[in-house]
Design brief:
With 619 residues, the protein is α+β, with helices and mostly antiparallel strands. It folds into four domains: 52-195, Phage tail protein beta-alpha-beta fold (3-Layer(bab) Sandwich); 200-260, Ribosomal Protein S8, Chain: A, domain 1; 264-284 and 354-571, no CATH class; 286-353, no CATH class. It contains 14 helices and 29 strands. A hairpin with a 4-residue loop joins strand 20 (395-413) and strand 21. Helix 3 (62-73) runs antiparallel to helix 4 and helix 6 (150-160) packs antiparallel against helix 7.
């Protein structure tokens, strides 16, 4: 045990001696070279005089403020022992040089730059060294804005300052500071006094325009010039505007221009169905209307509706004149209201069919002539005569028909179960008309017209058993400008229907088997053409301008009868009563007693009986 302790002590002594053995210089240098190099300390780059920083200093010593600015901007600042004062400064995004100048001038301090060092001293020390005041170069003026917008005040002050001037505006506190020569500061102060005007607040109650729309129109202008604000109240349809007095006059004119009465137009619509005869294979030949118009003395609009172009460079002429001189000539679109652009001559005139066509007739009496012409072609039926009042640039819709419903089935398959859901879809079938009217100031109306006629011709059965209707549709879409009171005609909406009829002996024709020999069934195709006539009437003021000379509800050629005025009739007096007389049995009465009859059983001559008075007796 004793030997073991000796060995431990000897080993510890050897290790201690090795630890204190000096290492040669060459070995130490080699070890230092092999050690990893330490990265140098990184210091933030100075901001510089032109850099913009944010500071929030509240009632601290000016020397501490200069020390903080020196560290923040990387400036070398040395202050004399007489430098003293306190500073409160709250700025955002302001250049370092402007902050440095404001710190010094607000405490009556000055500085002299020598190389990269700024020597800060008191104003008295500066005057003792240079013989003049440091403030004689620039002064600092602080303005408290009451009404002017800070951004607008900054733009004004920045445009008026000199080259050595500085402007600082704090929007949150409404404070503007200017550092410049005394003369420039006085000029800026005078300019700010004109800008510091109290804004006016006006509430405008709109009559026709929507408050939200007026707000969107004016907000862009007020925000762009930063001269006020606008708010809208949709409940009362009012706008609240805040602006300068001079600007408010311009705003009032804008509101008055926007709040004008919306123009309105009454669209008189005639939807006419013409059953075409067998002779009209190509549809209605509109040149026949020329002769009808000539017979009744009507006049049509010059070049727009009933006219034709002889060639691509020729002037317009009436269609009647063109048709009369058709032999040996060619033209473009020879049929009125026609979509044809092929060359037409006397040999091809009858073989061409018409497409969707368009025309305009003038005055109300021309419509009567058109109806007479259509009645000569086939059975004419006015399907509908709706009248729509619509405001300017708004769409009006007419639907005469039904909403056809069909069911679609959707199956959703899960891991173990399947879910079947059904949805009912509706489609409009019948006559549809969409009109968008734009009223011009010169008495013309631009209309975007889209007529459509549709019908269910058959059904398609899906594998799930649902029936989907197959719809036959004829549609046209056009934009035309016509004069107030004129009529636009859209035609060419044709369709062919199969009609079947049966005839037979009453009762006997319904007997099975035998009824087949006692009845007959016939089927034929009927071709119809749908015409849509639109007559716009501009509504102005409180009265309707119809362009017609007669009142509503009257018919052309109706004789007006004057009803006789009311005259006072003589007072009717009942005859004096006669005392009753007892009638003895078997005695005949002096006057025959007649039973009363109902008024409805009287003859016409009895009804026309009128009692007259002669004195106090009834005759």
């Amino acid at each position: 045990m004793r030997n073991f302790l000796k060995r431990v002590c000897i080993s510890a002594l050897v290790l201690l001696l090795c630890a204190h053995t000096p290492v040669p210089a060459e070995d130490a240098a080699a070890q230092f070279a092999q050690a990893p190099a330490l990265a140098p300390a990184v210091t933030p780059a100075p901001a510089g005089l032109e850099e913009k920083i944010a500071l929030d200093l509240r009632n601290i010593d000016v020397v501490d403020a200069l020390k903080f600015l020196s560290l923040k901007a990387g400036l070398n600042i040395i202050a004399t022992k007489n430098v003293a004062g306190r500073i409160t400064l709250m700025v955002q995004d302001v250049a370092v040089k402007d902050i440095f100048d404001i710190m010094l001038r607000s405490n009556g301090l000055a500085y002299v730059k020598e190389g990269d060092i700024y020597n800060v001293m008191t104003g008295e020390e500066y005057r003792a060294l240079f013989g003049k005041k440091f403030e004689d170069i620039r002064e600092v003026k602080v303005f408290r804005l009451k009404y002017a917008i800070p951004e607008q005040a900054f733009s004004l002050m920045d445009s008026l300052k000199s080259d050595i001037g500085r402007v600082l505006v704090e929007p949150e506190t409404g404070t503007a500071m200017i550092m410049d020569t005394p003369a420039n500061i006085q000029e800026i102060q005078n300019a700010l006094s004109s800008l510091e005007q109290k804004n006016l607040v006006e509430v405008f109650t709109l009559k026709y325009a929507k408050a939200k729309d007026v707000e969107e129109q004016l907000k862009a202008q007020l925000d762009a010039k930063k001269v006020g604000s606008i708010k809208s109240d949709e409940r009362s349809n009012q706008v609240i505007i805040q602006a300068l007095p001079d600007r408010m006059r311009d705003v009032e004119k804008l509101v008055e221009a926007l709040d004008k009465k919306t123009k309105e137009v009454l669209i008189d619509t005639q939807i006419i169905k013409v059953k075409l005869s067998d002779q009209l294979d190509s549809g209605i030949e509109w040149e026949g209307l020329m002769k009808m118009g000539n017979q009744f003395g009507t006049s049509y609009l010059g070049s727009a509706p009933f006219s034709v172009l002889q060639s691509s460079t020729a002037a317009w002429q009436s269609r009647r004149a063109f048709m009369d001189s058709l032999a040996g000539t060619t033209g473009i679109g020879a049929y009125p209201f026609s979509g044809n652009t092929a060359s037409v001559n006397s040999s091809t005139k009858a073989s061409l069919g018409e497409k969707i066509h368009l025309g305009i007739i003038d005055k109300r009496r021309d419509f009567d002539v058109l109806l007479k012409f259509l009645q000569t072609l086939g059975k004419t039926q006015i399907l509908s005569n709706p009248k729509l009042a619509v405001i300017n640039n708004q769409e009006a819709k007419i639907h005469i028909g039904e909403r056809q419903a069909y069911v679609t089935t959707t199956t959703t398959t899960g891991q173990t179960t399947s879910t079947v859901s059904e949805e009912v879809t509706f489609v409009d079938v019948g006559i549809q008309l969409a009109v968008t009217a734009t009223i011009n100031d010169d008495g013309f109306v631009t209309m975007k017209v889209k007529p459509e006629i549709s019908s269910v011709v058959s059904t398609l059965t899906t594998p799930s058993g649902n029936k989907i209707p197959i719809i036959d549709t004829s549609m046209a879409e056009t934009t035309v400008m016509i004069k107030d009171g004129s009529t636009i005609i859209i035609g060419g909406l044709r369709k062919e229907e199969k009609v079947s009829s049966s005839e037979g002996f009453p009762i006997l024709s319904k007997i099975p088997i035998l009824g087949h020999f006692l009845s007959s069934k016939t089927g034929k195709s009927e071709r119809t053409e749908l015409l849509v006539m639109l007559t716009p009437h501009i509504v102005s003021g409180d009265s309707l301008t119809t362009g017609d000379d007669r009142d509503f509800g009257t018919k052309p050629g109706k004789e007006y009868k004057e009803y006789p005025s009311f005259t006072e009739q003589p007072e009717f007096k009942a005859p004096q009563s006669v005392p009753e007389k007892d009638i003895e049995p078997g005695e005949a009465p002096e006057q025959e007693i007649k039973p009363y009859r109902d008024y409805s059983s009287l003859k016409e001559e009895d009804k026309e009986y009128q009692p007259t008075l002669k004195g106090d007796q009834v005759q």
